[in-house]
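User: Here's a chain of 263 residues. Predict its fold as tokens.
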Amino acid sequence: MMGMPFLRFVPSKWRLTAKVLPFVALILSLKFLANRYGVEFLTMSPLMGAIISANVFLIGFLVSGVLGDYKESERLPGELACCLEAMADEGSIVLANTKSPKAKAFIDDLDCLINLLFAWFDKKERTGTVFRALSHLNTHFLAFEPLTQANFIVRMKQEQSAIRRIITRIHTIRETSFNQAGYAIAEIISVILCVGLIFTHISPYHESVFFVAFISFLLIYMVFFVKDLDNPFEYYADAPVVDNIPLKPLMEIQARLKDVVQG
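Assistant: Prediction complete.
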């Protein structure tokens, strides 16, 4: 995480907490100074509780919005791996039947495509490059025409089309936010509430420290949580806060491809 390199040493489930704690410490420091110099000019009002409840409701709305994309994202790497493996199966059948170097070249290109996908997930390659690599597979399909049945080639073309759809969906989830205006109002209200708590007189002082720390932690945590949950494919970050969708299915299909080539 840019600006917080220590997060990479924190267990993944505690990274968001570690990211929020410095902000809470800053707010508590300002609260201490406000109390010490007597500038707590606000009084605790029921309206403060109503505003906090409204903000929590708004954040809950944002969470429910991004959660749908997150649940969908959990399926995408597995579906991508299944499409690639289905194409590899057809290529391995041709390779076993004909021993043609064209079939081996096809499997080698599938392996290169998987490596390209890993680089794409890390944002080291552009989406257009992935699409060009997918289109390059068409040359292999043409070469397979005298080597296999037409319905096998049709199946591979269908899997190729499915891969395009999956990559397009992942690109959309990664590059767009659920609701920028919703994020903005949630952030504005959270900042105003935290500033208001700093200058609100709550007696006794130790209770004010507890409530200011707890409320500010909750508000800041949830704002960061929603924004991080909005992109479950943030593999390119140094220390992603929310767990990313695992790419283990792609790693497994790549290992199986190597076994096919070596076999």
